[in-house]
Amino acid sequence: DTEVTQTPKHLVMGMTNKKSLKCEQHMGHRAMYWYKQKAKKPPELMFVYSYEKLSINESVPSRFSPECPNSSLLNLHLHALQPEDSALYLCASSPDLLAGGYEQYFGPGTRLTVT
Amino acid sequence: AQSVTQLDSQVPVFEEAPVELRCNYSSSVSVYLFWYVQYPNQGLQLLLKYLSGSTLVKGINGFEAEFNKSQTSFHLRKPSVHISDTAEYFCAVSDTGGFKTIFGAGTRLFVKA
Question: Residue A85: phi, psi to the nearest 5?
Answer without folding.
Answer: -85, -5
